[in-house]
Design a protein that fits this description.
about 400 residues, alpha/beta, Rossmann fold, 2 domains, six-stranded parallel β-sheet, 14 helices
Length: about 400
Amino acid sequence: MRSLKKESIIYVNFAPYENAGGILDYFKDNFKYVALFSFNFHHLGKKGKYNKLKIYQKGVKIDSKNLIDFQVPEKLIFLFLPFRSLFIFLQITFYTFYLKYKFGTFENYFTVNAFTAWVGNLLKKAGFVNKTIFWVWDYYPPFHESKIIVLMRGLYWQFDKWATKSDMLIFLSSRVAKLRKDIGVLSENDRYKIIPVGTTNIVTEKLRKLRRGSKIKIVFFGVIKKNQGLDLIFNYSNELKKSFPKLEIDIIGAGPDLKYFKNRGTKSNLKIKYHGYLLECDIDKIVKRNHIGIAPYIPSIENEAFYGDPSKIKRYLSFGLPVITTNAFEFSKEIKKTNAGILIKYNKRDLINAINKVIDKYAFYQKGSRKLGKTYYYKNLYPKMFTPY
């Protein structure tokens, strides 16, 4: 396996996913120079906080530049998407030219988004980078109640076709690779790898205990959107409070529907704490002190999560938290097979039954979570991204 210590990499992603599964940490530990372009898509908090270019040398940040944050009201995000994309294109191009001037041609250009992957392929043709890598995270179904969103998804799919011509093509799951074959974006002869999101920690601490009648802490982490399924908790908050009087819920993250869920929280009798957008270290502190990680995705093929890999669940597994989730994605079968948690249908009975089962056999599910988390440790997964097919 080739050494990356003398190589450089441009990495483009969107907040708050820059370090999902420890990918940024891996780059900082293994490349001489890392140039991170981070852009804000949904409103996550203070303006100007997220659009950044950060440059690292041997893991240490040596420079940071503010990028233009072209914000519009949340309801108009998709309408103005072409303009926002133009700003992204111009800024990546301008600063890649700057990076080439200051540090020389970058060996690698890495991204998880079809549009920014297309930008990378253009930069390669211009001689600014030597190799492009597209780690395919997303599939956006071509149907939605909003005609604007349907149109924007159609345009995105055009970029996706061009992006598959990257030098290295990697998919999070075989499900998302198969789908691209089925619709003709990917041919049978195209080469690619399957590399999922990794976990970031191998738990060595003594197993925690959870007893019936004691305080139960459940955490939800991620971008706050309705398709993440949080309504399941609020729809049955009275029943949850009755069944688990000492239940506490931490909700970590920001997003387009945060205000909606905060309003629902004011009408709930559950003890819920909204933490908003946090730094990585603060997220880990909160997740670690919880007992159960929940990911109640709405299980539908119309939900883009159906084709992806759940980074929030990898976060829970990183700290040995038993997981309660729906059968919405390919990784669900791994959770069930290893007893790392419980799969539920999107209803009250399954949710309450699952919490009861985890409480009664907490050590059993905790061991399963630790074992599965160790299997997907990011330092063992990500080197495969930089080896030949």
